[in-house]
Amino acid sequence: MHDAPSVSFPVGRCVWCHRLVLALWCAGVVCALAVGWWARQPWALLGLVLIFGLGGAVYFALQSWPSGRLLWRSGVPAPVRGWWWQTDEQGPTESVTELLVLADLQSGMLLALRLSTKRRLTLWVRRAHAPLHWQALRQAIWFHAGEGAA
Questions:
Q1: In the chain, count of helices (H) and strands (E)?
Q2: Are 130 and 9 in contact (CB under 8 A)?
Q3: What string of pLDDT tens digits covers the 150 residues of the chain?
Q4: Helix axes 43-63, 15-39, angle to 10 degrees
Q5: What Rg value do the Cα atoms of the chain yield, rounded?
């Protein structure tokens, strides 16, 4: 059986995550305002403050969503073969010890990586980031799911 081809795929921030969080946050604000108006109690203001604080915390968490390149290297000797993560074009690569598929929506995939530095990343990869390499990436992911660097 043939191995999956080598592929380098850009990973960006999750666009729909921002929209989903914004929609949920707006719904929470509307609910808190409705309860505050209905109850006319000072504690209702606390709920509104908590929702604003939670929305800000989630916003800043989404801003730190990782971006870089996910690489599958095949056809090379064992120390170099496998999954790799690169934080930017010129940055160093870190070997991926484990790659798991959390969700596959055909045009996008939610992946969990464990790096050799014991750091964990959750990535959202989308076909729109590199349409010409999407099939090669999917083939490498499903052919070697659960594997990392050899």
A1: 3, 6
A2: yes
A3: 467 788 989 987 777 777 777 888 888 888 878 877 787 777 777 777 788 788 878 877 777 778 889 999 887 777 778 899 998 767 778 899 999 999 999 999 989 999 999 989 888 899 988 999 999 999 999 887 655 544
A4: 170
A5: 20
Which residue in 97, 85, 113 sits closest to 148, CA to CA?
A: 97
| Among 34, 14, 4, 3, residue whose Cα is nearest residue 123 | 14
Q: How far apart are CA 104 and CA 13, in angstroms?
A: 17
Place of tokens 């606390």: 46
Q: Helices in the chain by DSSP H: which ranges?
A: 15-39, 43-63, 134-143
Q: CA–CA separation, 52 vs 30, rounded Å? A: 11
- Evaluate whether 120 touches 112 at the Cβ level (below 8 Å): yes
Cα atoms in the 13 Å half-sphere on the side-chain side of 73: 19
CA torsion, points 135, 138, 142, 147, in degrees to nearest 10? 120
